[in-house]
DNA sequence: GTCGCTGCTGGTAGCGCTGTCAACGTTCCT
DNA sequence: AGGAACGTTGACAGCGCTACCAGCAGCGAC
């Protein structure tokens, strides 16, 4: 063969094989399964590849092997802090592995998700990470028919497609409300924005806890489909106060809203927590730094992303986890914004492991 | 040929061509350059593809055409809010185009960036988006030798590799300090974290403005290499106060730090802006909502990402922009946290277009 | 009427790699 | 000693698509 290089001047596997004095297929094996080679050839190929600065052509590999080394990730938003933490975990876990991440934004639309899923699946990804448990029937069918591992993240539910990692937003919201009850609060408002399925389940948890205590009233709930923001938190709180001035606590569906409520309280000289207690959700970094410090429900977002990607890669490589559904739990982090009425400082409530899954199954009305 | 389908059951271009009654190569052309086909064949191929649900095999396309439809993006952090806005812009602009985004995280290391660059370039990306202007000499050489369009984002400097979009952090910092001068402040502290090249240039801008006014003192500057956070803002501010209790304003290298300073002031009953003025950087959403509202330097992050990706795609397709270096400018958004001393409410300072580039060239000490 | 041009179409030959299967040498067992 | 079993290696034939070039018709110019 006359040519030594590809047109573009790149080093090919054949050159590496030639320098190492082995056949191309042996060199190929070195990169896919080094243990299959004798030590002598292995070192020869290794040094030849290094000397030539060989980088495999992924397109050729994908074409020949009929599969890619791409992990598809479908998330609903790039703006939301919550997802950037999850993504960081995913990227961290994929780094150093042979897999690369292909990210797409569903913009909270399950129709868009379905479209993207079709696109992804057509390229035969090595694995797929999808957000949540509320896919369309069509999406669900495609996922079940897919011949790659799939992991659903952000929450857990009774019918995993394959693997699943998250926590129960329903239980977490109930725990937050229980915490407020324990502090002596009764007229607890709910403030929520965006109202995606997970926020909706937080609302469901709040409603059920309030109903259990015979304290639920529809006018305590203020929500909007608008994307969340700190400013919006203030605005929703203003609405809430107008509907029910006697409120003594607010449970916010996320921390941005909580910060907005805090600022609005300050603007109106409402003391926190004396006049109104505030509880957020997610426990973003600033919550511990605010004045007063803000109570929140801690969720393990980075760990969720990282573990999801790690589990997925393990599964891709044939080592399926013995525990395909992982409940990462949550923890109510009690801070000044909700701890005045009682000096009571007993340990905060915590979400269980597999227990929460069972609890969810026992409460099917909230997960369909 | 006997087989009608690929092993995996996927529809191939050949099937589409057969159904449309044209040759495979004609069908292929339909997807790459529909105008080259006669109207009759075009519609035939189109409906055949639709009927069969054909999805092209990107790996085969990449292998045969020696190029991919991937835009590589190298950013230093996934945590930082600033980058999530930029990324959102990039993803939004790429959506609907044929290009997909391949993201990698350099973790603020130019050595890591060099390594990733080598990896990316080996796969022949259609284009590349890199952060900043501080690449290693090796990276720089690779970028200049690359046969794809490249755009540097986040800041502008005198020697673009190819295209460039951003603003002058140096000028923006000077404008922030000038604003504080105009409000009558003199003992202005600087608080910075992470100290990546762009934060460093903000510090340089602060230093030069302070020196111009003969007000610079080293002890007014508190920085750390630690990643930024709200809590850290408070801690750095405490340091600053310990070094110089007479301070009357703080310029924070970003908004998280500014929020931390605000909370720390509240904790210590320091009134803002009466006793100490605060100015942040980036103008994140919460700045307008805080109590008092916080002055900040607005930067067009989403627009930067969006425009960068749009310009890059245009360049990939052969339509190079007539203006390869774009200065998006900045704007000092004056709010309560820095506007008490004077009731002066004249228009805020704004970063110019190409002017800022020239200014940077005139100040080479800050860009090497 | 011939030539060359343009617009459209098709055939051939790979792109660089890997799946499959066969073949080889060696070891270990009976 | 013969044979099975294993570990290791290589030949062949594509993966699905596109670059390149050739061919063909239809047209206007000379």
Automatic annotation (TrEMBL), chains A, B:
Residues 11-65 form the HTH lacI-type domain. GO terms for molecular function: DNA-binding transcription factor activity; transcription cis-regulatory region binding. It holds the Pfam family LacI. InterPro entries: HTH_LacI, LacI/GalR-like_sensor, Lambda_DNA-bd_dom_sf, Peripla_BP_I. Keywords: DNA-binding, Transcription, Transcription regulation. PANTHER family: HTH-TYPE TRANSCRIPTIONAL REGULATOR GNTR (PTHR30146:SF2), LACI-RELATED TRANSCRIPTIONAL REPRESSOR (PTHR30146). This is Substrate-binding domain-containing protein. It comes from Bradyrhizobium cajani.
